[in-house]
Amino acid sequence: MPTRRDSSSSRKTRKSATASAHDTAHDRHSDRALIRELFVERLPLYSFADALRLTRTTQAEVDAAIAAGGIATGTFGGQLVIPWDDVAKLALDRWTPRMINGALGSTDRLSVIPLLNRVQQVEVFLPVYQIRLLHYLAEIDRGQYRARLSASDVLERHLLDLASAVNADELELAVPGFRAALHYPYFIPREDDWFTAFCWYCGRVSDVPGRQVCTDCHGRHEPRPHLGEDGIPELDQEE
Description:
This protein has helices spanning 4-28, 31-40, 48-55, 59-67, 84-92, 97-112, 128-140, 151-165, 168-174, 178-182, 215-221; strands at residues 45-47, 74-76, 79-83. By secondary structure, the chain is mainly alpha-helical. The protein folds into 3 domains: 20-92, Arc Repressor Mutant, subunit A (Orthogonal Bundle); 114-191, no CATH class; 193-232, no CATH class. A hairpin with a 2-residue loop joins strand 2 and strand 3. The N and C termini lie far apart (96 Å).
């Protein structure tokens, strides 16, 4: 005959199992899970229902994007479908590249995000008023994004506008793959050398094993305040 202690233990076990099942279901529907399903478990075509679910987009928003020519549709098996790259475009209207890279993690992003479109941390020195401007814009420009914007998100968006305004043919010569990266997720696949560390700045093979910044760019773009006067050795040069 079960004791009072046994009954209490049984209730706790059932409650724990219920909570665990709830957490698992919640995880499957989290933004992180949706991003991973779209990018890691990529399919060539998606039904409208799956496109809406994966990007947390409304039917009205998709209809507006189609009417504006922002995304394309097709027919497969008698139903309307949306290609992966157009679904990914909807996702990029909902999550920034930083958010998507963060959801994919350090391992999966290497296999599903093209080399030039992966997010990489760099150190930037700006006047304080510009830093506060970035914070202000992050506060007011959230728009349709699902999470709070950071200064990096704001800077990325403005650099994207700048990249779209420059001569792509000229930049392609200086930065091979620039045009494809600019048009991501609409791009022509390129063969990346996964075993070579390229410099994030200039694109040349890094001359330091295991470091993805060459020596020249490391000194130029990543100065350290404890090295000389604010880490700018050029200031000590004489004519």
